[in-house]
Amino acid sequence: MSATGRHQAGITLPQPAQPNLLAVVADLGDAVAVGPLLAELGQAVDTCTAGTDPRLLGLPPGDLTVTVGVGPRLVRRADPSLPGAADLPRFSRERIAPQARGGDLLLQICASDPLLLPVVATALLEQAGHRIRERWRQSGRRGPNIPVDKDISAPRNLLGFIDGIVGPHTAAEHQRHLWLTGPAPVAGGTIAVVRRMELDLPRFTALSVAEQEAVFGRRRATGAPLSGGTAAWDPNLGAKTPDGRYLVPADAHVRRANPNVVGVGLMLRRSYSTDEPTPGLLFISFQNDLRTFTDTLARMDDSDALLRFTTTTASATFLILPGFDQLHPLGAKMFP
């Protein structure tokens, strides 16, 4: 699909998200001119998604998207006051090697054809050449999408639960919670959080279905909250059993991460399941305020039952640059 427009592809479009992803995180050399590099990458993204780049080796691009983000160090170089200049804080349950924390450049490559991912990554890294140094990469995939509401569907994660039910789904919600409206250099962009997590499948599998549902606060089969209704319903966090117990347990994920309780906006999640190096999740969220993520995870850190089954092994945040076209190169307003 087309790479050009007000927003980069690979965030809200296509919908639903493609089943395969490859994320590449890299650093730039201190002397590298950021603007020319981003402009070249944007041109390469355009030719790859259009199917005219010979480095595709004849593979049809189909629904290929490439989404490019820059890390806090580069944002601060442009303007320390811009959204995206703040690093992610550290949280509990992390086991992160130095090279897997942070980064200057994100290349998120998605497609229905899994063969495209390494081919496109090779083309983009070749375009950048010695100007960047790869930190880490992670591939992932999404299972079949399950309808949860009108025009809304989401896949299951490796724990068997529907993932990504809550989020900004309408154009109005995207404008309120997802897209940056200013300052001018970032208008049309968004803030991404990328975290790779290992999942303790054996320990979670050992739980009964009822115990698993208590961890999430949702029915495993349907995604409906334990307080009743359908998957699209907001959980009734005040609902109790006749003997006074909360239907949605106090430490359930849907309670601890509920945006109304946390007091933050909505995050758009486009996460992918992983199996290398271990079974897990590549958590990817997009929001127009980093605090949407950090405040949510800080509250989850306190007592979210789901986190007991996770260990984060990579973590970074990126400013996803505004969209681009032939007259307005990728990143040109930030790095003229």
TrEMBL record:
The keyword rRNA-binding does not apply. The keyword Manganese does not apply. InterPro entries: Dimeric_a/b-barrel (IPR011008), Dyp_perox_C (IPR048328), Dyp_perox_N (IPR048327), Dyp_peroxidase (IPR006314). Signal peptide: none annotated. Its cofactor is heme b. Keywords: Heme, Iron, Metal-binding, Oxidoreductase, Peroxidase, Signal. It comes from the Bacteria. Residues 155-323 form the Dyp-type peroxidase C-terminal domain. It holds the Pfam family Dyp_perox_N. One of its GO terms (cellular component) is cytosol. GO terms for molecular function: heme binding; metal ion binding; peroxidase activity. SUPFAM superfamilies: Dimeric alpha+beta barrel (SSF54909). Belongs to the DyP-type peroxidase family. This is Putative peroxidase. It comes from Streptomyces glebosus.
